Amino acid sequence: MDHIPVDTLYHATVISADAETTARHHSEFYGVERWDVTDFTPDRLTNQTIFGRVPTAPPPLDLSTPNPTPGTFGFRLARGTTPNGAITFNIVQPTGGLSTFEEFLVTRGPGIQGMCMTSVDKAGAEDLKSFFRGESIRLAQSYTVPGVAEFLYFDTRADLGGYYVEAIVPLVDDWQAAMPVDTTWSFEIDEARAAYSRTSPGITHFGVIVPQLRPVIERSAKLFGRDLWRGMHWRTEPGSLEEPTNNGKPVKHSYFTGRADLGKNSLGQPFGLEIVQPVFGPSHYKEDFLEPLGAGIHHIDLKVPMADWAEWEKFSEWLLEDMDAPVCMSGWLRDKVALFEYHDLRPRLGYVVELVAPLMPHCPKKPWAPDYWYDFAGSQAS
Length: 382
Hints:
Number of domains: 2
Helix content: 10-25%
CATH architecture of the largest domain: Roll
CATH topology of the largest domain: 2,3-Dihydroxybiphenyl 1,2-Dioxygenase, domain 1
Shape: globular
CATH superfamily of the largest domain: 2,3-Dihydroxybiphenyl 1,2-Dioxygenase, domain 1
Strand content: 35-45%
Number of strands: 21
Distance between the termini: 28 Å
Oligomer: single chain
Structural class: alpha+beta
């Protein structure tokens, strides 16, 4: 194995201090009709590891409260999927012990910790572990749900920009159906207002904010086996980025981006990564995310079908007024053929959502060329 095998986008993992509230907001936005909820206490998990260590006996101390076992952890898992099957979220609320979930929540707050795109058998899992060891990347966390699957969390934060790569090792053919369910949640949904996002064919990319673009793209190319990345220098000038805003105010700024697809979801929608380095001027990327939190997944780009500008304006109004999701960044791209908006849904969902308005009539029929390519398959210069 010489790269991470990508099958499809199984789920994105969202860390929350209150899984039920976060699930309710996801239902409001995405129209998720049902959440399967499981409280995984340490006794329901086997083969737990955390940061390379296995559980040990607690020290023999006379304490006033129950003495936790070092190396064990628990969490509440709420799993929900959009009605068309395009997007699945695992919302995780840590409930005890040290885990990557707990560490993420304490150090960063709610947000997207990582994504799962890989399923391998036991032999493939050993190959995957060996590949990561060869790349000096350790297995940060693992556990087994008996009779269902083993779950692996690789600490790719330093290499890929602040997020974990997850993998599943199924123990039965239909591991998802075999997952234990303690209860289910269903929330009231405004069908008309959720009509757009619930019919989305999926997430087009995860927006990863980093202080230095090129080394992260180079490592991403190596680890995912994707050598060719679209490079852009977005800047406030005609033909690039026009009328940009930051937190509702006009701004002059610029940023580098590198973009590549990694695979397709269950509906055939390509998904991948957009790696962003803020360069000049204030931006939500920098002052509101990178500086206070460090590198990580800032946003998801959601493909939302809309027939015209009337639908776009209606949807935007709902986001602003009912979802309390202000536009934290926006701008017109490439001679005003497309308008993008970032809506700050962090208080409700844990992350920012990027949306693109219906394309203008003068939009070219073919994708526009990047400013340059990052090609890591090219021969090394002597």
